[in-house]
Every structure is written in C-alpha cells, then in structure tokens.
Amino acid sequence: MPFLEILWAVLGLGFLIIVHEFGHFIFAKRLGVGVLKFSVGFGPRLLGRTVNGTEYAISAVPLGGYVKMIGEDPDATAEDVDPRVSFAHQRLWKRAAIVVAGPAFNLLAAFVIFAAVFAVYGARMPSEAAKVGGVMEGMPAAKAGLQVGDVVTALDSQPVRTWEELSAAIRASKGRDVELAVQRSGSTLTLRVTPESKPDKNFFGEVVGEAFVIGIERGFDQEAVGVIQAVGMAFTQTLWWIETLLLSVVKMLQGKISAQEIGGPILIAQAAGQQARMGLEYFLHFMAVISINLGILNLLPIPILDGGHLVFCVIEAALRRPLEMRHREIAQQIGLVILIGLMAFAFYNDIARVVRGWG
User: Fold this and answer.
1) Closest Cα partner for 214 from 131, 126, 135, 133?
2) Mean pLDDT of 205-224
3) Using CB atoms within 10 A as the burial measure, which of 65, 175, 208, 327 is most buried?
C-alpha cells in the first residue's frame, strides 16, 4: 500500500477521533467533571503541559486520542476522589450528556465539513446529459476507450439526450455490440462496445437482478451555491447519511447485506488515498462520511462503546440505582470480545480484498 494512502488515512482518522474525544472533553469540563488528561495520540508522551489540573499531551502513536476523567470508576468513593468533580458521582443526565457528546461531535463535524465543501466548491449535481463521470478498470467501456468527461450523444445512430436514455439502451442491448457517438474536447468519436451481464445491485449492495452494463459512472455538473444554501444542503446530506448508515446496519443484521462488505483499516486507507488523489473536495467529503460512521457505530449498544454506556444509564434510570460493578465488568468483557471479533473480521475482509486484487 502506498505510503501516502496510509498517511492520508492516519491524518484523517486521527483528526476525527480527536474530534470525538474533544466532545467528551468539553462537555466534561462544562458540566464540572475533572479531566486528568487529554492526549492527542497514544503511548509515551512526547510533549505535554498541565493546566488547571488537566494534562494536555501529544503522544507517540498518532492514531486518535483519549480523555481520562476523574472518577470514571463507578466504585470510586469520596475518599478516593472529590465527588464534586468525579464522573461517577455526577447526576445521571450529566453522565449521559458527556457520553453522547463524542458521537454528537462526529455528526457535527460531518455537517461542518459538508457545509464548507458546498460553500467553497459548490454542489455536484448529477448531469442530465449522458456524461461519463467514471470508467471502471477492466470493463467494456475502458477497453473501448471511453474516458471521463466524454458525452455520449447517440447509440446505434439513435440520439441519446439523457443519462437515463443511455442506461436504458445499454440494458436493452442484451449483450450485443453497440456503436456509441461520443463528444470529446469538441470532436465526435465513434466507439464500439460490448455490454456485459453483471449482478444488478442497489445502493446497499443487495443483488436485485441481472443487468447489461459497460462499466461507466454518471457524470456530475458543479453548481455554485450561497452560504445559506450550503448550510441547508449540509443539513440534508448529514441526515441522509445518518439514515442510510442506520439502514445499512439493520440490513446487515437481517442478512440482506453480506458481512463481507464490512471494511477495516486497509479499506479505509485505500479509499482515503483514492479520494485524496481525486482532490481535496473528494477527500473532505469522504472524511465527512467516515465521521458519521464513527458517530453512528459508537452509539451501537455494545458495552465498551458509547452506546453501551448509554444502555447502562438507561438501566440505572429504570432500577433507580447503578448497575452492580460485577455485572458491568462482565458486560464490558463481552463487549470487548465482540469489538475485537468485529475488528479481526474487518481486517480479514481487507486482506481477502487485497488477495483477490492480486489474482
């Protein structure tokens, strides 16, 4: 894997994890909980300074960061720590707010990134014309010589005015050779291409049938937008991705989406590097989506994740007393096993994808 891909992934993910931890940190501070340490990175401290009882540090391993609060141990007593600044001794709503703040800051970061991208670069709207926005390697379009930016104006001498008309005509070809009239840099070219039959998948990767395709992606047109419009579009985009990712989790639990779609650090690094090569706009958009992923996945009701801590808060509210430490420890251990298993499975999927790519 190229070094730059790893670097982009480390910088991007590291920043988003720091944003997550900063959410916990700032809410803890605002709600009167003592914070012992806020570290950017893990491992041995490289630089650091203590201000008002909180150590701010830069550590050796630049893979995110962490916040250590006073009294995170639920069994801490007044003899161990000052209950006025102890996390464990705060009212339930305060602890819940601190827990939620991490994922919430990830969602907020995604919204801000989307808004900035729209305001600076404009909105990428699907082109009405049959404009090629991407050419898949090894597919018929690439073999025939189609390029990004080409506009198909006719298929077998029949005019093509929109992307929908082109898609319908290719699907209706049933695999026979077709002749495309293509506009490229002011010139008209004629290319012959043979569509291939491939599984037809929806946005979630579910197979919904078979379709004849040539391996091109729809093009986009860039439209300038004002700041207010950019903010509105960012809000809509953030909500859409939240809904989509939640639905993806549900479909995966239902078995409608293969577990092989789960990706780990290698896939993220490859995707980050690919988006970075396409330009800052694409990389920032990718980081916004990953930030939403971090926020949503951290809210899953798995002990050790923020969502698991929220479950403990709900149980405590129902019982009107904290869950016994022994039960919390068992749940945390189960959650750790689940999390390690998921990480191992995601890493296995990454390796399998790399191996398939070599084949």
Assistant:
1) 135
2) 79
3) 65
Share of the chain above pLDDT 70, in %: 81
Please tell me the distance from the alpha carbon of residue 156 to that of residue 176, in angstroms, as a whole number. 11
Cα–Cα distance for residue pair 195/179, rounded to 1 Å: 11
Vertex 167, ends 162 and 172: CA angle to 5°? 125
List Cα–Cα distances, 17 to 132, 197, 345, in angstroms.
Answer: 36, 42, 21
Three-state DSSP class for residue 145? coil
Single pTM value for the model = 0.78
> Tokens at residue 178, please?
């077709």
Helices and strands in the chain: count of H runs, count of E runs: 9, 12
CA dihedral (68, 74, 78, 80) positive or negative: negative
The per-residue DSSP string of 236-260 comes to HHHHHHHHHHHHHHHHHHTTSS-GG
In the chain the domains, ranked by start, together with CATH numbers, are 89-120+238-358 (no CATH), 125-223 (2.30.42.10)
